[in-house]
Amino acid sequence: MCLAVPAKIIKVNDRIGEADFGGVVRGVRLDLLEDVKVGEYVLVHVGFAIERIDEKEAEEFFKIWGDYGTR
Amino acid sequence: MEPDELRRILNDPRIIEKILGEIRKVSKKLDHVRIMHVCGTHEHEIERFGLRSLLPDNVEIIPGPGCPVCVTPKLEIDRAIFLADKCIITTYGDMYRVPSNKGSFEHAKSEGKDIRVVYSITDAIEIAKAEEKEVVHFGVGFETTAPTTAVALLNSPENFSVISVHRLIPPAILFLLSQGEVKVDAFLDPGHVSTIIGTEPYEWISERYRVPQAVAGFEPADILFGIYLLLKQILDGRYEVENAYRRVIKREGNVKAKRMMNEVFYVKDAEWRGFPEIPDSGYGIKRKYEEKDAIKRFEDELRGFEYEEREERGCRCAEVLRGIITPEECGLFGRVCSPSNPVGACMVSSEGACHIRFKFS
Lengths: 71, 361
Ligand code: SF4
Prior knowledge:
The complex is a heterodimer.
Chain A: E1 5-13, E2 16-21, E3 24-29, E4 41-45, E5 48-52, H1 55-65
Chain B: H1 3-10, H2 13-28, E1 33-37, H3 40-48, H4 51-54, E2 59-63, H5 68-71, H6 74-83, E3 88-92, H7 105-110, E4 115-118, H8 121-130, E5 135-139, H9 146-154, E6 160-164, H10 169-179, E7 186-190, H11 191-197, H12 200-209, E8 213-216, H13 220-236, E9 241-243, H14 255-264, E10 265-271, E11 277-285, H15 294-297, H16 299-302, H17 317-321, H18 345-348, H19 353-360
Parallel strand pairs in B: 1-2, 1-7, 3-4, 3-5, 5-6, 7-8, 8-9
Antiparallel strand pairs in B: 10-11
The complex binds iron/sulfur cluster.
């Protein structure tokens, strides 16, 4: 039930936005995050963005375990 | 980085092999280790990717009470079904077929009650806007889902209310440790619950019970990294809460979501299916928002609701949820009980340990 999927924010209109889920665009509620911006990656759970995905931290992870295919 | 790209790298066999290599090195120096996770999605991904078979023999991963719909007491479902005589009930799909004493939401619907499956609580609000009738949303889920209910409690039409059956994870971990009926050496904490609450609420549990914990995400590399951190802690004799999902989880969690939850919910003792009452493990709706609390709102109607607990014969779901037995150890598993003909909640829900084990075995 706690499934959350990553998506890219492509539209922000106050507390409602649109997000791109790998080609599929769906409406997403932004009530749970401050100042969401277009272009940010978020995790979406039952229609709500619940957190941002920090790309720097993702890259740190690859640095530790080998950055296969990162670029 | 595009999510697909991120996922591709996190699934790269070379990364996975590298983490597994470290796991093997550490585990050689350890006795048998039992790690419990408390998340249906972890169980699903562990089975889907066959991670158990990749781990050394002395590293055992057992599922705990990590499936919110499985731990929801039957009474709560029956009470919602009772209200369906008068109201439209909205529920998440995961909950729809879970058995109660009276049947299930699905069964009630087949009897003509107005029960609607929604993907999001915002869909339930849309239904309330379009209908004259009262709409009651069955608010199930752990801390991941509770903030979305909080948003709805703070802003929804007059004819909309919620049955809050939200349950909290750290008190469940604490309870399992305090009971001591199952030996657990470390906990793999749930990634998306922790996205909201952060790592901080687990810290004193690690201190008090000297038990290592790690929060982890859901790609194979995330889960294995979490397991690696736990093994390393056991080897070093440390007991901390480590973060294997740093790209999402912060120590303080999602502050805004927590603030909204604090505004509308209070913490109460709550029953979990398969458990006795667990102290401080549920969210009730604060008095300030009581007209949004369906149990208060329909207090008069609910006086007519009667309930007597009945157990499914032979179902050992309760022991599965507490980590005492594996699904296969239940005599009904796969024979009498299967996803097409489920006996207990653990076989109905796509996040139930029995369902997942059946699906991937
Ligand atoms: S296999 Fe079926 S009957 Fe056995 S514990 Fe699981 S849900 Fe219950």
